[in-house]
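Hi Y.,

Following your request, here is the sequence exactly as I used it, all 228 residues.
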Amino acid sequence: MTNHNTSNVVDLFTGEPIEAPNNKQFIRLSPELDGLEMLYSNTSSGSDLYSLKILCWGLRANGEIVGLVPWLDGIVACLEVSDPLDGSFEGYYDPGIEEIFFEAPIHKVVELETAAEYFEFDSGKGKEVVQEIPDTIGTHAVFMDANREHLTLSEVVSWRLFADGEIQGMLIDHDNVQTTPVLPGDECLYAAQQAEGFRYFFQHHIANKIKAEDPAALAAIASLVNAP
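Below is the corresponding structure, written out as tokens. Let me know if you'd prefer a different format.
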């Protein structure tokens, strides 16, 4: 895989190369199917670490490969997680062998680089769908009405990667379902991030607590919604 990072412009303070924005965009995704997780901490956790299941691994145009998780109102690289309580990425985690690591697994590196060589990529195609992968971690989109009084949760079916690098979570428009089951690529799917009232993405364990009206979960949602 050719590394496209050819920038010779350097940040005066960090000494790191400054890349063009399109070098950071994602050009290929690979679902995480073995239960690997991301570890993170925040200022209230002390020495404790929290975990989230990794949705997929993404290959950037510059050759970098990172894990991706649904986070607040989008999908972000694990290394770039920003928590409202000053949280930070602490590593990847394999719960099967209880191992922490910091680089993408070699089998995902090989898969993504091989796929990128096989499928031609053209960033000039804008909003053309490059790839669509199923959601395998039970992600839900949370919507709130204009008065901030009622929550609605919808299951994410899939994630679409567009030629401009944007990744959108896709939900079912039940009024337009023609056949079942609804699969990735179905015409009845629409993007959560572009829908009115959309607030956040949550994995299934949090979504289930919201559905059960768990007081702690509802209080956390309220604090996020009311944050400036």
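The longest strand covers residues 65-71.

Thanks again,
Q.
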